[in-house]
Design a protein that fits this description.
This protein is mainly β. Helix content is 7%, strand content 44%.
C-alpha cells in the first residue's frame, strides 16, 4: 500500500542519472525532514519522463505536492531517499508562499566537514567516509549574498564546457559549488562568461553519489528572495 506524504518542492532534477525531486515534508503545515523522491531505481527515467507516462506535470520549485510513495530506498549517502509509487505518482495541491520560505531554512552550519575542494570549487567535496554519518544529504540555506559565475571549465580546450557556479558563505565559511538547477543553468548560460551578483538567495545544497573517494556538493536549486533565478 502506498504511503501518502506532502512536501514542498525545493529541488527537481530534470535529467536522469538519477532523476529525482526533493523537498521538506509538511506535517500539519509544519516542516519536518527531507524527502528525496526517485521515479525508479535504475536511474534511466527523469522525473519529467516518469510524469509523462502517468500524465503528471513535472514538479516545480515551491509546489506543494502530495506524493504516493512505494517504500523507503535509502542509500548510504542519501538516507532520505524514497521510491515513488509507479501507478499513483504525485499531485500538486498548491504553492508555498515566498514569505514563508525562511521557515524551511536549515540551521547553520552545514552538516558536511570543510577543507576539501575540487580544482574549480571551494569546500565542495566530502570524503566518502564522512557520508554515512549524516542523517540527510540535503540542506536549505539563505545566504545574504550570492555570486553566480559563468565560466568555461575543463582540463583543456578540447574537454571544456561552459558551466554555472554559485559562490556564497554560510556563517563564516565560504563555498563555491556547481549549479545543477536546470532552469538556473539555462538562464545563466544565455549570458556571457562572467560574475553576476544576485544578493540574498535561497539555495538547496545536495550531496551526490560518491566519485573517486568523495561525495560532491551541488546547488540543486537556487532562487532569489522574489523566487527568480537572477
Amino acid at each position: 500500500m502506498a504511503i501518502l506524504k506532502r512536501l514542498v518542492c525545493l529541488a527537481n532534477t530534470l535529467s536522469p542519472h538519477p532523476g529525482c525531486f526533493a523537498g521538506k515534508e509538511m506535517v500539519n503545515d509544519h516542516p519536518e525532514g527531507w524527502l528525496r523522491v526517485v521515479p525508479d531505481d535504475s536511474g534511466v527515467l527523469s522525473t519529467a519522463q516518469f510524469g509523462d507516462r502517468l500524465g503528471l506535470s513535472s514538479p516545480v520549485l515551491l509546489d506543494v505536492i502530495d506524493v504516493h510513495l512505494a517504500e523507503a530506498r535509502p542509500m548510504e549517502h542519501q538516507k532520505e531517499r524514497w521510491l515513488v509509487d509507479s501507478e499513483l505518482g504525485w499531485r500538486p495541491t498548491g504553492r508555498y508562499p515566498l514569505h514563508s520560505l525562511p521557515r524551511l531554512v536549515d540551521p547553520e552550519p552545514l552538516p558536511w566537514p570543510t577543507g576539501s575542494s575540487t580544482q574549480f570549487g571551494l569546500n565542495d567535496q566530502v570524503p566518502v567516509g564522512c557520508l554515512p554519518q549524516l542523517s540527510s544529504s540535503l540542506h536549505f540555506v539563505h545566504p545574504a549574498n550570492c555570486k553566480v559565475s559563468v565560466l568555461t571549465a575543463g582540463a583543456d580546450r578540447w574537454n571544456s564546457r561552459r558551466r554555472v557556479q554559485a559562490s556564497f558563505r554560510v556563517g563564516r565559511i565560504p563555498y563555491r559549488i556547481w549549479v545543477t538547477d536546470s532552469r538556473a543553468e539555462i538562464e545563466y548560460l544565455r549570458r556571457p562568461n562572467g560574475d553576476y551578483e544576485i544578493g540574498a538567495t535561497f539555495i538547496t545544497i545536495s550531496a551526490e553519489r560518491p566519485y573517486r573517494g568523495y561525495g560532491h556538493l551541488f546547488a540543486a536549486a537556487i532562487m532569489g528572495n522574489d523566487g527568480s533565478h537572477s
